[in-house]
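Table 4 source record.
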Amino acid sequence: MTWAALLALALWLTTVVVVKTLLRRRWSETAFVALDWRRWTPQDWVASLLAGLALVSLVGAAVLAAIGSQLGPQLRPPWPWIIPAGVLIASAITVMVWSQLTMGASWRIGVDRGETTGLVTVGPFHWVRNPIYSAMVVTAIGLAVLVPAVSTFVGTLAMIAFVEWQVRVVEEPYLVHGHGRDYVLWSLKTGRFVPHVGCAHDHPAI
């Protein structure tokens, strides 16, 4: 199996996860807040632009590379790099599925500032407050290793910028407002993106 076949498999698995996630949710204004641009604030627009840049750069470059139209043989990663990249992507997909299943009815695409969902602190959320976003960044890094092109590096940087903006500027103020003390106490002992890093006592503004 060539590196391109591994890349195509990773993309296929990622697509399956996204599609199954969307299909298992009933189409409603509540579950798909981010799709209603009429509710967006300036902060939401910035997050959406960053997310769009990341997705277009990563997916576009990966698809072109998989069909052999972007990378020359000299730019293909050596086999020792393909294995850890595949492990990163597979692990990230596993964390995404686990996190979304753990959230259950509290899962949302976007933030509805007029709604307060349940605060989920079990499963992967016992160690990290934003495991899905962490997994998205890990997936982007894995794709950048598999496809060492300018567009994938740009996409990875855009993904990191999106995640930082979405969490710090959009979601954390919403969660503090909606859950108050419960969220603050949880954030005191739980890292933002990785365990023990970015706890609330490191960031007095939370």
